[in-house]
Amino acid sequence: MFKINDILNEAKKKQKTIVFPEVSFSDRTIEAVKILQKNKICKVLLVGDASAMIIRDKCFEKFDIVNPITFPAREKLVKTLYEKRKDKGLTLEQADELEKDPYYFATLLVECGYADGMVAGAECSTASTIRPALQIIKAKNKKEPISSFMLLAGKNKFLKDKPLFIADCSVMENPSAEELAIIASQSVESAKMFNIEPKVSFLSYSSKGSAKSAYVEKMQNAFQLFKKKEKNIICDGELQFDASLVKEVAAHKCPNSPLKGDANVLIFPDLQSANICYKAIQYVGGLNAYGPILQGLKKPVNDLSRGCSVDEIVVVSAITALQSSISQP
């Protein structure tokens, strides 16, 4: 049985350092880091001006706080940023200025080993959070895209205790069939991180050829590419949403599907449909949405929805700690 508390407990065992660049201007992040520190879910590193933050809230006296301007190894961070971006035209003077940005600074702390992972996005767009990660940390495999998934979990009469992994909901706007197959493989590895047996469905408005179009063909091709590579993973495609998740519908629309209406990893045709769907499930279906969680980076940097709750920040931080344990054993 899947339980969010299991994620928190596993993170406690790892005691990874997670950096938070938004705490000086995000009330939700302040409440989240208080919970994380009190319950020892992870080691918390905050970005900001310590004096100003302590004046605002005495609780900050108990936290480790680093300032981009006064950080002892600032020169190393600036040089790292310059080396990463000089081929794109970034000058040393520009790197010196960009290092002061809290998102770039926090990302550099992860890249240079001062933190194990970063969580941000409660107060900014996804682009502001992940752009520094794409530029500095970069992909594990240059031939594979960076993607993301949302973890949907909670009390729901229909799903019961089953979590859903929805990909890609925040990075790849219109992935090709080849890219979708890679995103599915990345999502499988993410599901396994939670000790979940992945069952993958490639979604469409068509089920097993009930409609014909280039959109349907893309999902059919993605499924075939994935199936050829991941021979031991239960999967099917192309399938409609209901045929993927409702056993009675699956029995009618695709009786020979190995998923039998029990998919838990849902691969969407594009970012637009995935993003709309996860928010509909979250707000209308009453589930909690954790993420977006990035996949394919060398080191973990994770985004938050600007509508996130304090609880969601806590859980994403714990997931980041688990990812860090895999990428940095």
What features would you highlight for this structure?
single chain; 329 residues; alpha/beta; Rossmann fold; 2 domains; 13 helices; 11 strands; 15% strand; globular
Which fold does the CATH topology of the largest domain refer to?
Rossmann fold
Number of domain modules:
2
Work out the number of β strands: 11
Mean pLDDT: 94
Radius of gyration: 21 Å
Percentage of residues assigned to helices: 40-55%
Please write the string of helix (H) and strand (E) elements: HEHEHEHHHEHEEHEHEHHEHEEH
In the CATH scheme, the class of the largest domain would be: Alpha Beta
What coarse outline follows from CA principal-axis ratios?
globular
How many separate helices? 13
Distance from N terminus to C terminus (CA atoms, Å) equals 26 Å
Low confidence ranges: none
Largest sheet properties:
6 strands, mixed
Main sheet: which strands, in order across?
8-7-9-6-5-10
Detailed description of the structure:
- The chain has 329 residues and is of the alpha/beta class.
- It folds into two domains: 4-138 and 297-327, 3-Layer(aba) Sandwich (Rossmann fold), CATH 3.40.50; 147-284, Isocitrate/Isopropylmalate dehydrogenase-like (Rossmann fold), CATH 3.40.50.
- The protein has 13 helices and eleven strands.
- The strands form two sheets. A six-stranded mixed beta sheet has the order 8-7-9-6-5-10, with helices on both faces. A five-stranded parallel beta sheet has the order 3-2-1-4-11, with helices on both faces.
- The longest helix is centred in the C-terminal third of the chain and has 18 residues, at 310-327.
- The chain is globular.
- The two termini are 26 Å apart.
